[in-house]
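New here. Your pick:
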Amino acid sequence: MTIQHVTVIGAGTMGHGIAQISAMSGQQVRLYDVDGDVLEAGLGRIRRNLDKGVARGKVSADLRDASLDRISGATDLAEACADADVVVEAVPERLKLKQDLFATIATHVRPDCVLATNTSSLSIARIASAVDHPERVIGTHFFNPVHIMKLLELVHHAGTAPDVLQRIQAWGQGMGKECIVVRDSPGSRLGICLGMEAIRMLDQGVASAQDIDKAMVLGYRHPIGPLRLSDLVGLDVRMSIGEYLAVELHNDAFKPPALMREMVARGDLGQKTGQGFYRWTD
C-alpha cells in the first residue's frame, strides 16, 4: 500500500517541516495543531521556506504552488486524521502525552494506518503499548531543518510489522531521505553526550562557544558545532532528552549541566527565543 494521505500532528519546528516535504513529494497533507495560531504560523513557515527555495533556484514555482495546494490545516483531530495512510506525531517529548495522543488517534483512523512518532529518544514500544494493533507503530526521527537534512532514522520495536517498515522506508526514500534502520533503544545518545560535554567545557572556561564549535567543524568535519546545534534544536528539548537518557542508561554523562539548567530556567532556549549560546536575529 503506497502512502498518499499524510497527517502531521503538531505544527511547530518539526511538524511543519514534515508536512512540507510530504507535500513536495506528492502526498495530500493535513497539518493539525490544537492551537490555531501555531497552525497558522506553521503554514506560514512552509510558504516562506518554499518561497526562499524559489528565490534561490532550488525549487520551481510550479512545485511550490502544487505543494501548497496539497497542504491543508486543521484544528479538529478527527477531521485531520480522516483517510490518513500515515499519521506522524511531532509533539513535545513526553511519553504520556504521546501515548494519550496515539490512543485517541487510533479511534479516528483505519486499522492499517501507520502511526509514526518523531520522538528522538523515547521508547517506541512504550508508545505503541497505548494502542490496539501496536504492530503499526514505528519511529520516524526526522532532523532539523526537515526540508534540508537528508537523514531519516526509522526505529522499529520488537512488534513492528515488516510491511510497516517497508512502507515507511519507501515513503522516506520518495522524499529524498537517506533512511537508516535502528532497533528500539534510547535515542540521540551520541549527539546528546557530545552536546552535554561541550556545555560543560564552556561552563569550565575551556574555550568560547564559537571556538568549541569551530573545533568540531574544522577538526572533525561536523557540519555544525554541538552548541550551535543545541540552539537550533532548543535547550529545553535537549535538556529533557538528556534527563531521560541519564535515567534510562544509568549514565551521568547525559545529565544536563548546571549552565544548561540555568539558561532554560531564564528562558534562553536558543534560536526560538532569540538567545542561547548564540544571539539569534531574524
In short: Residues 189-272 form a domain with the N-(1-d-carboxylethyl)-l-norvaline Dehydrogenase; domain 2 fold (CATH 1.10.1040.10). The mean pLDDT is 94. DSSP finds twelve helices and eight strands in the chain.
